[in-house]
Amino acid sequence: MDHYEEVNHTLSFKEVLDELETFMFAGHDTTAAAISWSLFALGNAPEIQKKIRDELNEVLDNPCEQVTSKHLAQLEYFNRVVKEILRLYPSVPVVSRELDEETIFDNCIIPKGTWISIQIYQLHHDPEVWEDPETFNPDRFLPENNAQRHPYAYVPFSAGPRNCIGQKFAILEIKHTLLGILQKWNISSVLKPHEMKLKSEIILKPFDGNIDVHFTPLEYIIS
């Protein structure tokens, strides 16, 4: 039973419309950004690309087979890769919340009605939480490493009752798109991570607006 059922309240037309707009239109830019940053990250990590393809080839009957949700559940390494990319490059680097009650934080009283910003990018790059935070390391998300980490140290889709309504759909889009590309192409990036300047708007963007990568056909794919 959800919140609205508990309080005997149905969604108004405007509330339904707001949820639909959030799901469809807000998800358009954020998912595109996540895929773009994924290509950039993978373009700087050929060894990770190889591991993904090796794992994929163990799951598929042939390299050209279309990936299904059943396959995705078996791709443990690839799933960690996607999580790590969203840690490095969260599509929405900052979210804001209005406090609905007075809150005490770090011995400071924050009044009801105050707007606070949650700096997701900084949280995901906090060296006190993430060892060597700028390094692309999917094994951060091995079960034994997850167990030692605060559950809110990693929030690429925000958290709580107002987290991203479309996160499961977005993850499926990202995974299927990336695997479709990796089945046919090798990716290489023009810039290295330390050369890429970032810009925080509603969406995390490259400072000059471009993510330049090269695609080279894989030799075992027959067009």
Automatic annotation (TrEMBL):
The record ties this protein, via InterPro entries, to:
Cyt_P450, Cyt_P450_CS, Cyt_P450_E_grp-I, Cyt_P450_sf, Cytochrome_P450_Monoox
- UniProt keyword S-adenosyl-L-methionine present: no
Topology in the lipid bilayer is annotated as: Peripheral membrane protein
Answer whether the UniProt record assigns the keyword Oxidoreductase to this protein: yes
Question: Binding positions for heme?
Answer: 164
Instruction: State the UniProt keywords alphabetically.
Output: Endoplasmic reticulum, Heme, Iron, Membrane, Metal-binding, Microsome, Monooxygenase, Oxidoreductase
Q: Which cofactor does it need?
A: heme
Mainly localized where? endoplasmic reticulum
- Give GO cellular component annotations, separated by semicolons: endoplasmic reticulum membrane
Compartments it resides in: Endoplasmic reticulum membrane; Microsome membrane
| Molecular function, one GO term | oxidoreductase activity, acting on paired donors, with incorporation or reduction of molecular oxygen
Under Pfam families, the record lists: p450 (PF00067)
Instruction: Note the superkingdom of the native organism.
Output: Eukaryota
Q: Quote the function comment for this protein.
A: May be involved in the metabolism of insect hormones and in the breakdown of synthetic insecticides.
Family affiliation: Belongs to the cytochrome P450 family.
Q: What is this protein called?
A: Cytochrome P450 4C1-like
**Gene transcribed to yield this protein:** LOC105364330
